[in-house]
Fold each of these.
Amino acid sequence: MTRFKNKVFIITGSSQGLGRAIARKVLLEGGKVLLNGRSEGKAVEVLSNFSEFADQVVYVGADVSKAEGAKKIVDEAIKSFGRIDVVVNNAGMSAFGTLEKTKPSVIQEIIDSNLTGSLFVSHFAIPYLKQSKGSIEFISSLAAIHGLGNYSLYSAVKMAYIGAVQSLRKELQEDGVHVGAIYLGFTKNDAVKKTLNSNGDLELVPVRKGLPVATQEESAEVVLNQIYKRKTFVVQSILGKANFLVNRIFPKIIHLVLSNQYRKMTKSS
Ligand SMILES: NC(=O)c1ccc[n+]([C@@H]2O[C@H](COP(=O)([O-])OP(=O)(O)OC[C@H]3O[C@@H](n4cnc5c(N)ncnc54)[C@H](OP(=O)(O)O)[C@@H]3O)[C@@H](O)[C@H]2O)c1
């Protein structure tokens, strides 16, 4: 397939995990990708995964939650490839724990890496996306359908994407820019994936037991299909779709089910 021949993608947070899998698929389909992670020192390691696409990729170490980092990403994409067709706002961190016990610095970091960063990168890229009539895609989560206990920060930032998509669609429709978000389902993590605990320490994400987990390639394909078809909202997985639908009609039922789950989780820990 060559759905993305010569299309230029900025994929934030593509040094590992889902972002890296999306990048690989775009490159295989003839696109060009600006890869990103926070650390400038990771360039050689990240690019070594893409050695067969050397003239189609560039890596930019920059923190999206800083305006200057976001601007650097957009400027480098233009410098390297001359245009921007798609921004995938994928960079983000998760956090676990009650809001009461979470350190203010962690609250700030989760909001900044997921939300502020996505808005900064989109802000700087919009003039170029208007020229290319391109796309902005936000990687949201099933945690954005209905707030989860112990994930108040994560649910809040992922839900905020939905509001951003609704507003941006209006602001950009005359310019032919597509804006979308995916409610991403459980996806296999890299073994090195870390999450911030409420003390502000990074800890490895535990392996998910008993839950259907998509491969990174499967989730990457769902994201790219959405971008290609310019769909606004996509909910991944049967479980996700059922949850979305029932929550729309009977939000109290989902509240009761999730409250029950939360009670069980807090009792067993
Ligand atoms: N995996 C799932 O089951 C799942 C489900 C729903 C939604 N999602 C969402 O999908 C996205 C990717 O998830 P993942 O599992 O692939 O996570 P991951 O393995 O932790 O990867 C996150 C990426 O974001 C980068 N990053 C974090 N903060 C950044 C910042 N401030 N500036 C620039 N880059 C930053 C990291 O790079 P460095 O560490 O090199 O900076 C890394 O490349 C996230 O937005 C996540 O919330 C995941």
Amino acid sequence: MSWLPTRRPGPKSQEKREVPDGIWLKCPGCAEILYRKEVERNSWVCMLCGHHFRISADDYISILIDPESFEESFDSVVSIDPLGFVDSKPYPERIAAARGKNRHNEAIVTGKARIESVPIGLGVMDFKFLGGSMGSAVGERIARIADLCLEEEIPLVLVSASGGARMQEGILSLMQLAKVQVQLARLGEKGIFYLSIICDPTTGGVTASFATVGDIILAEPNALIGFAGPRVIQQTIKQDLPEGFQRSEFLLDHGMIDAIVPRAEMRATVGRILHHFWDSRPARLDRP
Ligand SMILES: [Zn+2]
């Protein structure tokens, strides 16, 4: 075989070797292979079918608010392991692993920001952090950002993406539902506007508490929104579920949410709604 020239890698195979992992994405909506950078430029929405990818809290914040307007707060509020909970792994190990993969240390990021120049208190959940589960730290951060909104009389915007209460903190997680509801009721009493944005997926205790009690509730297209998952319901009632059950469009038809807003229009839409309330807010009278 010596008469054959020595094989050298051609430009094509060289190029292939240099392609880093993750440069392409498969769209769960249409199964097409997409160029990741292009999807990112399109606010993580498929250019072909409009599928909204699940994104991190940081990505959502940059899409939603005025550039450079976010000031994070309450990031020192973190979960401990009050029950000494162990399943297949101890709970502190699960938290440490989630922190290793995330820039943030909890399943929600809170702080002050501006949308179309209106100042707001903001909380954005991150499904990639332990399934966006609500433990005591998540509940406490929401309670504190609501306090800040009460103090400064600015609207509250919460973005949900969560599997529900955090099982590893047991009853302490469930108590967050009531705590957050009390805070939202206080906002309501003072006439402070609360806007809820629901992303895919939002289920369990988060649906059952703050996600579905906004003065206005917006959802992303085709987001799964429910309490128990469809499989559990189907097995319980032993009936076929209607087409599109627990998706944004179904909830809109049944009066559970106010509007479905594509991600690319979210900032402008939220800005318009906020201005409606902000510009017409009553002047506060100082009473003794
Ligand atoms: Zn697609």
